[in-house]
Amino acid sequence: MSKLIPVTQPFLPELNEFTPYLEEIWGNRWLTNNGPFHQRLEKELGKYLGVRHVSLFNNATIALITSLQALKISGEVITTPYSFVATSHSILWNGLVPVFVDIDPNTFNIDPKKIEAAITPKTSAIMPVHCYSNPCDVEAIEAIADKHGLKVIYDAAHAFGVNYKGQSLLNYGDLSILSFHATKVFNTFEGGAVISPDAETKLQIDRLKNFGIEDELTVTAVGINGKMSEINAAFGLVQLKYIAQAIEQRKVIDHHYREKLAEVEGIRVPELSKDSNSNYSYFPILVESSYSLTRDELYEKLKKNNILSRRYFYPLISNMSMYKGLESASVAHLPYANETSNKVLCIPIFNEMEIDDVNLIIDLIRSI
């Protein structure tokens, strides 16, 4: 049997790179609660990403929940159904109502032309997602938000290191949320971050992620435990040394896929944005009706050959039991999101992937 090829694989530097950090953590006995490694990682990420105010979290879901709380969002939040469930779950956790609008079939991101029609007197925010590291139409979204007095919170889980028109994509909106889960380009095992526009907002975010504690004797808000540990932060510092190299390695694989799959009838490879770079976090393809297999048949075929692809995002959030009763979740209301969800397949891409494995996957898709 051939070896197993996962859809993604965490980037793990050599263990001896991490050992001195562990020894220092053990030595100073500071394991969490804004320790020195936590502070260093926030500072270094700010430099690398081109942002000023980074708040580290234990995961991106808690970061999303806290961001909605920090901005005092109420009522309805307009969002996309084409995302991981954490996006909409964070809205429900705050007692809010997600309102789904359809996606652009070319970018997979929320379609700004559909947002305005979904605004009601109860709408207080928009939560778009930069899907597969492809930037949303941030100018159009923020023009709508300014016109109607809405907050914009970007789920930027896929957008680590992405620059748009010469500046960090994370500087758009009122807040941006990153994920550092093990499946992401940059990871801290588990983790995430909120990017704030100013020091005052960062202070508020930092208090909320620490139970709402203001000082030793004062708790001023119903916060949560969202703190990142020193071990996670230290791992992030090690990863940051090699992240540029890792992204370049993924770029080579991405371009190889694009060149070889472009000629396959019935396989559509989405284009990369011309206004931004990419971190090559995923490699989605769309399996069209002109291909000789359905998307699910191709998924099973690859699986039988020890190649683990992922139908990402499927099922669509709006079709899940806790959401499908919403008026905005109807299939007729979301034709492009449903169509894309039924066609998409993310095939393996990670920085240490061998070119022979890439060619094996290409050959299997082409031969079918």
Structural commentary:
The structure is a single chain. The chain has helices at residues 15-28, 36-49, 60-70, 86-93, 112-118, 138-148, 199-208, 230-261, 295-304, 335-343, 355-367; strands spanning 53-57, 76-79, 97-100, 123-127, 151-155, 163-164, 167-168, 175-179, 192-196, 213-215, 218-219, 267-268, 284-287, 344-346. With 368 residues, the protein is α/β, with parallel strands linked by helices. It folds into 2 domains: 15-238, Aspartate Aminotransferase, domain 2 (3-Layer(aba) Sandwich), CATH 3.40.640; 243-367, Alpha-Beta Complex (Aspartate Aminotransferase, domain 1), CATH 3.90.1150.10. A 7-stranded mixed β-sheet has the order 1-9-8-5-4-2-3, sandwiched between helices. A 3-stranded antiparallel β-sheet has the order 12-13-14. It has a two-stranded antiparallel sheet with strand order 6-7. The longest helix has 32 residues, at 230-261.
Low-pLDDT stretches: none
CATH homologous superfamily of the largest domain, by name?
Type I PLP-dependent aspartate aminotransferase-like (Major domain)
Task: Summarize the main sheet.
Answer: 7 strands, mixed
Q: What is the CATH topology assignment of the largest domain?
A: Aspartate Aminotransferase, domain 2
Derived from helix and strand composition plus strand pairing, the structural class reads alpha/beta
Order of helices and strands: HHEHEHEHEHEEEEEHEEHEEHHEH
Looking at the overall shape, the CATH architecture of the largest domain is 3-Layer(aba) Sandwich
How many domains would you count in the coordinates? 2
GO molecular function: dTDP-4-amino-4,6-dideoxy-D-glucose transaminase activity
Pfam families: DegT_DnrJ_EryC1 (PF01041)
Enzyme class: transferase
Keywords: Aminotransferase, Pyridoxal phosphate, Transferase
